[in-house]
Amino acid sequence: MKAKILVTGGAGYIGSHTTVELQKAGYDVVVLDNLSNSNADVIDGIERITGIRPAFEKIDMQDKEALRNLFEKHKGIKGVINFAASKAVGESVKKPLLYYRNNLVTMLNLLDLMPQYGVEALVFSSSCTVYGQPDILPVDESAPIKPALSPYGNTKQICEEIITDTIHAGAPFKSILLRYFNPIGAHPSAEIGELPLGTPQNLLPYITQTAIGVREELSVFGDDYDTPDGSCIRDYINVVDLAQAHVKAIERMLGNKSEEPVEIFNLGTGKGVSVLELIHTFEEATGVKLRYKIAGRREGDITQVWADPQKANTVLGWKAETSLADTLKSAWNWQLHLREKGIM
Ligand code: NAD
Ligand code: UFG
């Protein structure tokens, strides 16, 4: 068995897929989650895929003593992957204090306790949102950070800074900041996937819920952007591919291969796809026709962004492998699984 890794927010969408990939690579995983945006059944799904039930602690990471107790109980944690955060952009505009408190206090508690328990490595879930609308595309890690468009986006920038400042001040651990582009899809087993509470804000869950009839019609937010078909362009990255990058990041830090104490990697495919292209690829890949209409622009959306993933490819040794069609099929199979189970 390799090192013990704490996955905070491990019952969530990306955390659950990462737990699976860590277990497959031989790591001993402890999952922490307060289930504010997830369900304990996810742990069963993880076990069905890997045959291993991860240790699970229902803890709110804002509670520092509870987090300390976890480190006491699970001695010898070598690495932490910090997914726990609130992540709805629109909600963050309405409830900024909730977002600043949850996303920053959890991070501060972790950074305080990690050195006391000998943790050597921290992976942080950041976002391409830190680049805003980049001046040059594809965007690489040297691009300037733009003013955040929401409190949520601001928490990602601030957490990157807090981690960097803490390590520069001599904290005895390394960190890798992973800037995700747009994670989509589900595990090919359809045992775990994305389960948004209420009306989905993100494109792909809205597509699959419309395709299955939970939603009447998808609104395409704008077809008058300065792009080839007028709809916005993003870099959609398969969630299992994304999860595997976290395993690489942990291996890199615990294997003493980091070139700097804080390293940053873009996690994307390098290919921009428009909203309309995504809809048509979904229809082709699944054979399901989608009802959609063109609606007005959504406030705060940037026109286009896609990654230059060269650094992740060459330095981290990670590359997005799954095709967009297979990723969209996996999302559809997950939606069908939810229907079978009577969940949605
Ligand atoms: P998610 O909501 O599915 O997972 C986050 C998990 O953290 C949830 O299970 C939630 O219950 C838990 N959590 C939240 N606050 C907590 C707290 N105080 N204590 C304990 N657990 C807590 O979200 P996700 O899509 O899996 O995102 C994971 C991380 O990646 C987040 O930090 C998010 O900001 C970041 N990220 C996500 C995307 C995306 O598009 N999904 C893009 C860029 C970055
Ligand atoms: N869109 C629609 N209709 C919808 C939902 C979305 O047309 O019903 C469009 C959006 O306008 C955008 C594209 O689909 O052009 C993607 O939108 P998402 O909401 O799925 O994703 P975003 O790029 O807006 O943001 C997401 C996360 C952020 C994260 C960012 C980068 O929500 O938290 O990816 O990782 F920061």
Notes on the structure:
- The protein has helices at 13-24, 41-50, 64-73, 89-94, 96-116, 151-168, 203-211, 239-254, 275-286, 310-316, 324-340; strands at 4-8, 28-33, 55-58, 77-82, 121-127, 174-180, 182-184, 218-221, 233-234, 236-238, 262-267, 273-274, 292-295.
- With 344 residues, the chain is α/β, with parallel strands linked by helices.
- The protein has 2 domains: 4-183 and 238-267, NAD(P)-binding Rossmann-like Domain (Rossmann fold, 3-Layer(aba) Sandwich), CATH 3.40.50.720; 203-234 and 270-340, UDP-galactose 4-epimerase, domain 1 (Alpha-Beta Complex), CATH 3.90.25.
- The chain contains 11 helices and 13 strands.
- The radius of gyration is 19 Å and the shape is globular.
- The two termini are 38 Å apart.
- The chain is 40% helix and 17% strand.
- α1 runs parallel beside α2 (41-50), α1 (13-24) packs across α8 and α5 (96-116) runs parallel beside α6 (151-168).
- The longest helix has 21 residues, at 96-116.
- It has a 7-stranded parallel beta sheet, with helices on both faces.
